[in-house]
From TrEMBL:
Keywords: ATP-binding, Membrane, Nucleotide-binding, Transmembrane, Transmembrane helix. It is found in: Cell membrane. The chain crosses the membrane at residues 26-47, 90-118, 179-208. Its main location: membrane. InterPro entries: AAA+_ATPase, ABC1_TM_dom, ABC1_TM_sf, ABC_transporter-like_ATP-bd, ABC_transporter-like_CS, P-loop_NTPase, Type_1_exporter. The keyword Isomerase does not apply. One of its GO terms (cellular component) is plasma membrane. GO terms for molecular function: ABC-type oligopeptide transporter activity; ATP binding; ATP hydrolysis activity. This is ABC-type multidrug transport system fused ATPase/permease subunit.
Amino acid sequence: MDYIKKLSRFIVPYKRYAILNIISNIFYALFSTLAMVSLMPMINVLFGESKKIYTKPIYNGLSGIKDYTSNYLNYIVTTTSETDGPQRALLYMIILIISLFLLKNLFNYLALFFITFLRNGVLRDLRDEIYNKVITLPISYYSEKKKGDIIARISGDVNEVKNSMLSVLELIVKEPLTIAFAIIAMFMISVKLTIFVFIFIPVSGFIISRIGKSLKRKSDKVQREQGLFLSTLEETLGGLKVIKGFNAEKRFNTKFQDSTNRFYHFSNTLMNRQNLASPTSEFLGIATIAALLWYGGNMVMVEQTISGGSFIAYMALAYQILTPAKAISKASYQVKAGNAAAERVLEILDTKSSLEDLPNATTKTSFDSSIDINNISFKYEDDLVLKNFSLHVPKGKSVALVGQSGSGKSTIANLVTRFYDVNDGDISIDGENIKNITKHSLRSLMGLVTQDSILFNDTIKSNILIGKEDATDEEIIEALKIANAWEFVKDLPKGIETNIGDSGNKLSGGQKQRLSIARAVLKNPPIMILDEATSALDTESERLVQDALEKMMKNRTSIVIAHRLSTIQSADQIVVMQKGEIAEQGSHAELMTRDGVYRKLVEMQSFE
């Protein structure tokens, strides 16, 4: 149960519910025992075995509570039977039993009522924290992780932890207390009989513990496999066009079915182990009851050391121990399963971000002079993508990065926005290293338009508002006009309130890209980073998008990563990259006069 300590900070805000649950469970356990004990006087009344007491007993302190309670009940039964008949005495005993069972069930409900707030509160806070962690961890973290596995952890694993947490509270409070009160009552009825019962309990406990030993390992396998098939599903939905286009349905179907088959076998093994707990504990309990019937029956009929009413009440108490004992064995399995799930949840929560803000990081609110990339080197894994790369971008100027795929152009955008950190060298804004600036304030100075138009399944308005949360409709429409997007948005059935579907798939590529530009326009940042913003568009869409980009880049500092060279001919400086290094740089006119890499790239693309 180590994970409970690690997750205790999620429990603390709801500790009042835990305390109320514990108090309710104490009363539940107490009234459960009293309800069973109250059967004794009722049976004695039925069979006329009640001890006749005509004088009201005197209370002599806690040590004589058993005799006082027994004598007081017998006094009530005797006096009531004498004055109103035995039926009235029986009625009183029935009312007593009903009252005790009512109180038992009331406190059971209250215990469940309070634990509901604790369970669902912890569930909500855990999910919120994991989601917060998911969006704060660096992009590099997800290059090694499957999305489906993350989804499985935030849904299934967190739910398993919630269920396990309830099991822990039952394991340490409700069921043990029920057993403890029952045992105390059993000792009060007959010490000899209770010692006999305890011979069987360690044997039962040993057998049950043997069954659950490998549950944690098996539960972990089930959860990992769930993450795997969710990843396959997520990849399938994302790449449906490719799967259908290449007739690869059978291959992906096989991959998914292989995973679900493994999940099926792992789940069967796990569930069968869990299912074995209840019948095993019940059988062992009944075996104990059978032995008790033989031994106790002998005490009633032969030795006559215990009354029939006391023995039946004792049997009810002994059977009452079985239900919490079964619950404990079941809960112990849930705790093991929860342990495996908690490890997967904590793995995300305990992951340290390599891009955490420094404790003394400053908040930068303006861009005044230049962006400087100073002799940086960077690698994603083993091979360097950038080697000793330097670049000076003055305020108000546009710098274009061109080169073949894999030359490191997009990596520059990832490093300037600090999605990744450089291995050597540094990047500074106005002479201040971006590692010394908070990520939030750094990215507030930048607008980003990527090659893939990343839009969300929401309205056009909501997608644009990501750029500026408090923008008015007029500001949104103005941004759409600058991005050449208003011409198609105004004709949509609900205008800016139109839902654009999953990833904006109700729109064309050019329309999606113009919405991405409108989002960046609305943000109105001093620095704009355009990562191959037109490379995936047709000629007409490219012209509209290019026109929108030029409007947006006016009097703005821009780093433009381009594949189509026609889009960057007006840039103040063009940097030609080759294998992570600068091959040449200058304006379009200067580079065309040289017989270098840039001219060859232009000629290859057949530009005039």
